[in-house]
Design goal:
- There is one protein chain.
- With about 120 residues, the chain is an all-alpha fold.
- It has one domain: Ribosomal protein L20, C-terminal domain (c-terminal domain of poly(a) binding protein).
- α1 runs parallel beside α3, α3 crosses α5 and α5 crosses α6.
- The radius of gyration is 26 Å and the shape is rod-shaped.
- About 10% of the residues are buried.
Length: about 120
């Protein structure tokens, strides 16, 4: 006799397929593979939300350092001078200034190193 599976299992599979929409090939269609891919994807998403913050900080530091090297300064000394002078600009803002407003960045550098 043919047995149609219950509605609860169908609902679970439907939810799984909805979450794995856009996954390539069997990762989006086959239940077992889709479930594994979803778990792995969620784990990567959790991990990479933290890694993204690290990567951006590294990018900002590299940009600030490059701008400082063009002006004959070192990153570590500049950051120390910022702290000593009480300037509350974070690395994100400093990196943006170094790219979009070089004169403003030079002004900050001059005011910090002269003080």
């Amino acid at each position: 006799m043919r047995v149609k599976r219950g509605i609860i299992g169908a609902r679970k599979r439907k939810k799984l397929h909805k979450l794995t929409k856009g996954f390539v090939s069997g990762r989006g269609n086959l239940v077992r593979v889709a479930k594994e891919s979803l778990h792995k994807g969620l784990a990567y998403a959790y991990r990479d939300r933290r890694q993204r913050k690290r990567e951006f900080r590294r990018l900002w530091i590299a940009r600030i350092n490059a701008a400082l090297r063009q002006r004959g300064q070192k990153y570590s000394r500049f950051i120390h001078a910022l702290k000593e002078s009480g300037v509350d600009l974070d690395r994100k803002i400093l990196a943006d200034l170094a790219i979009t407003d070089p004169k403003g960045f030079s002004y900050i550098l001059k005011s910090v190193t002269d003080a």
